Amino acid sequence: MRAEFTSTLETSCSLETEELEERLERACRGGEIIALVGPLGAGKTCLVRGLARGLGVPDQCTASPTFTLIHEYRGRLPVVHVDLYRLDAEEASNRLGLEEYLESPAVTVIEWADKIATLLPRDHLRIELEHRGDERRQITLFPLSASYQTLVRDVMNSARHRGGQSA
Ligand SMILES: Nc1ncnc2c1ncn2[C@@H]1O[C@H](COP(=O)(O)OP(=O)(O)OP(=O)(O)O)[C@@H](O)[C@H]1O
Ligand SMILES: [Mg+2]
Fold it and tell me: Least C-beta-crowded within 10 Å: which of 59, 92, 111, 128?
């Protein structure tokens, strides 16, 4: 992971986090894989909601999947929302059928992605979220290939235009 392509920003409320993902959505062409990593309540589902909204999926569809690990939404591009919180072991992921989704033209967003780190293709966008007190969250984007570097650069440029903070 090359540090010079890493981008960090802070959001001060959930709406700002959703807006970040709406900007990310605009840069997606389909086939992207976005791995979300961060503790409980960090804002992973919040990011997915923003992304799905940007793709035209109604908000009520994007509550955290409670009984199924994988949800599909229809928008401008299909969105596959995977939440692995309740996945105990990597072996269990063999039964998920995730590989099929990873090769599809959907935008695939995976909460608790570190649980299946070895199953993820090398080429993906990793997003780490951290609590920074109250409603502040630090969000770091790690593009793991050239195409994701372009995507992150576009997102960060639009953040700057809106007064977002970056490093
Ligand atoms: N800056 C912020 N960004 C995102 N969420 C925020 C922010 N500030 C406050 N919140 C609140 O934090 C909570 C984040 O919840 P969310 O379900 O998105 O977290 P999560 O990372 O998906 O957690 P889990 O691991 O339990 O699925 C929401 O209640 C949201 O309103
Ligand atoms: Mg969640």
Answer: 59
Separation of alpha carbons 12 and 117, rounded Å: 29
Q: How many angstroms does the Cα of residue 14 sit away from the middle of ligand 1?
A: 7
> Which ligand has its closest atom nearest to the C-alpha of 128?
1
Reduced 3-state DSSP string for 13-41: CHHHHHHHHHHHHHHCCCCCEEEEECCCC
pTM over 0.70: yes
CATH of the domain at 16: 3.40.50.300
Helix or strand or coil: residue 90? helix
Residue 128 in any domain: the answer is: yes
* Alpha-helical segments (H) within the chain: 14-27, 44-54, 90-93, 98-102, 146-161
pLDDT over 70 percentage in the chain: 82
